[in-house]
Amino acid sequence: MRDWRNKHNYTILGLLLGLLFSMISTITAQQTAEPTYNSPYSILGLGDLVDQPFAANAGMAGLSAAYHDAYHINSLNPASLGWLRTTAFETAIFGRYAQLNAGEQSDGVWSGNLNYIALGFPLRNPINEALDRIIPDFGAGMMFVLIPYSTASYDIETSRVLNSESGLTTREAFQGTGGTYRLNWGTGIRYKTFSAGVNLGYLFGRINNTRQAFLTDAGVYYFDDFADDINVNGLIWNVGLNYDVVFKAVDNKGELKPTGKRLAFGLYGNSNSGFSTKSDRLYRRVYSILDAQTLPLSERSDTLVNDIGVDEKGTLPASFTFGVHYEDQNKLIIGAEYSSSLWSNYTNEAKPDALNDSYRISGGIEWTPDYLSYNNYFERIRYRLGAFYQTDPRSFNGEQLTKVGATLGLGFPLVLPRQQTSFINLAVEAGQFGLEEAINENYIKFTLGFTLNDNSWFFKRKYE
Questions:
Q1: Reported pTM
Q2: Could you tell me which of 450, 412, 413, 444 has the C-alpha nearest to residue 428?
Q3: What is the model's pLDDT at position 301?
Q4: CA nearest 337: which of 138, 22, 110, 53?
């Protein structure tokens, strides 16, 4: 049995290292010169902010402030780690289809990738507690997470005729690739129904932006080529709190006992945090004299800017999220939350953009018909629904972008050897993002997550 357990743990460790290598390869591949998909608004700020909730939370519109579960990692509120009762390895993949609309033009865009990898574990093992015949009031947990923070991938081209008589025309092309990632360590402690925690993370990544401008005027051709490669590095953090009000009732012995129902409150947030950038800039201008067949007769190229390793600074905004859940243990969860981020405080000397404060309102529900059912697997599935509305930090023509959507989720329990329960979590999100009078998109996103639970990693063996 011990040999099987060791082989099982080595298999999990090998899988974790393989997924970590795969994600590092993905990070490297995203620094290519060509965008892999087209998201026009990612030209602003650090790009499109990536949804941070894991697959189980994503099915409930990303509820995270008051959410804590014995089997799943909640990486956003570190206070939830105090409730973790088993070692959890989590990873997910996603696929997204968006229909981009701009006036009478439309285009379909597919994207997808490995979403995150995470490992969380309790610092007190419930198996050891059972052997010691104790039920402690104290709990603690820890986690490590690697997840994208933002992505930039756009390919935009505009053209217009400035003077039809002289043939003066201009065309501009914008391209962007890359993104940033969050490597995070978190820990949380619990005493009875109160818990607190802290996340410490390292933000890193590279964003490549190019702008090309073409101008043709009576046989003279002008070409501007501006390229910015920005490396981002910084420390980020947040703190979180959880508190549960446990409902009790008098049992047949006249003693107050928990009913399994509770009201959970959660809060997490952070103040402004700084980051640094190191940029390479190459700006060129080319002049060409064209003949009647628009072939160059002469050409001259000037380098306007050629800077290597320019050190600059930036600021990420303060934010907070507050939520409340009503839970009937192993049966029902109903929750709502509100979050706000002060993106008007955002600065980036390497790529200045003015952003706006944003907020998000969301609500969700999880229902399990009968988690102990032996003859009907569908009654053991966790069914999830949610909806949200949020404003985006970015604006277009003075109007702030918005996003609205609905979610559906399913949590499929899997009983592995030694009767340890793990999960496959599926989440589907459908919504609309952007502005009706500019570029907007209707999208649908699928997230498939895997949660592998195993207590034997940190099992303290006893010998008689």
A1: 0.85
A2: 444
A3: 76
A4: 53
